[in-house]
Specification:
alpha+beta, D-amino Acid Aminotransferase, Chain A, domain 1, 3 domains, five-stranded antiparallel beta sheet, four-stranded parallel beta sheet, globular
């Protein structure tokens, strides 16, 4: 089987996937999202890559698409229809679901399914901020709507700090920002799901002086038992299923006082090298096994 990982090229995660794929007789290639081109005419529609024949892949995993998401989604929809290419995550090429790329639909699905998450607001301007801020209490968490790995996330205690954080996001050309109530905590839990099933979890603790638990931001991790915390497992699996996120990192935070689990977010292209390090689980192998399973359907 020949597999393409879109959004990973010279990356430790790609190397791990390649290691496990070779053991099972498969090939894995990575590419940048900018490696795609599409030629179109009255007689032809031709997606192509710089280094590989895009039609030769059995499975394409859309790990991270960034600003080129719509072109990749269209190309992969065409590949599935004309070559039978298996696409992960399917929701990205489904015209009725690809608007899941916004956190708004995640919030809607969580609300509809009675899943607990911090009170949040998606905003596009200071005008809308001034309208909704009266419904929130400080401290608050501010983040870009399209952020990854904790980048651009800040905790603010005053209106002046809030405006300053939003100005910084605007400089980075964030299309929108999310305002979220702060949940008192001692870290969060990253649950890794593959094929809508939780394969393991780790507890992440922020480094001293920071509130972000992301490993990429200096946080530390340790294994977290889902067997002893079945509610966390159930929430992660349900969220991945209702948002149709086949391979996901589900972030859950336990309220320090009430002990209730809150959903923070679901990541469709989760980092897993840190997860493997702290849990001793083979996430790369689980992903390859899932590719095998869906390719046989």
């Amino acid at each position: 089987m020949k597999i393409l990982i879109v959004g990973l090229k010279t990356n430790p995660q790609l190397y791990r996937l390649q290691d496990e794929a070779v053991k099972r007789g498969h090939q894995i290639h990575g590419c940048l999202t900018s490696d795609l081109s599409i030629e179109a005419s009255q007689n032809a529609f031709k997606p192509a890559l710089l280094e590989e024949d895009i039609t030769s892949f059995d499975v394409i995993y859309l790990w991270a698409l960034g600003k080129r998401r719509w072109e990749w989604c269209t190309a992969c929809l065409w590949l599935q229809e004309h070559y039978g290419t298996v696409i992960v995550n399917q929701k990205l090429i489904d015209p009725t679901y690809n608007y899941f790329l916004s956190p708004a639909i995640d919030y809607l699905r969580q609300k509809e399914n009675k899943l607990l998450f911090p009170k949040s607001a998606i905003l596009f301007s200071l005008k809308t901020l001034n309208k909704v801020i009266k419904n929130f209490e400080f401290p608050l968490v501010v983040k870009p709507s399209n952020g990854r790995q904790g980048r651009g996330v800040s905790k603010v205690h005053t209106l002046a700090e809030l405006y300053k954080s939003i100005d910084a996001l605007n400089e980075d050309e964030s299309p929108a920002f999310v305002l979220r109530e702060f949940i008192p905590n001692d870290g969060d839990i990253r649950v890794f799901t593959v094929g809508y099933k939780a394969i393991g979890a780790m507890k992440r603790t922020p480094k001293k002086g920071d509130f972000r638990s992301n490993i990429s931001q200096g946080g530390s991790g340790k294994s977290f038992s889902l067997a002893k915390n079945p509610e966390v497992k159930k929430i992660a699996e349900k969220l991945s299923k209702i948002t149709r996120t086949e391979i996901a990192g589900v972030d859950i935070m336990i309220h320090k006082k009430t002990k209730k689990p809150y959903i923070l977010e679901i990541n469709p292209g989760p980092q897993f090298t840190g997860f493997e390090k702290f849990t001793k689980m083979n996430a790369a192998k689980e992903i390859i096994l899932y590719f095998e399973k869906i390719a046989k359907k």
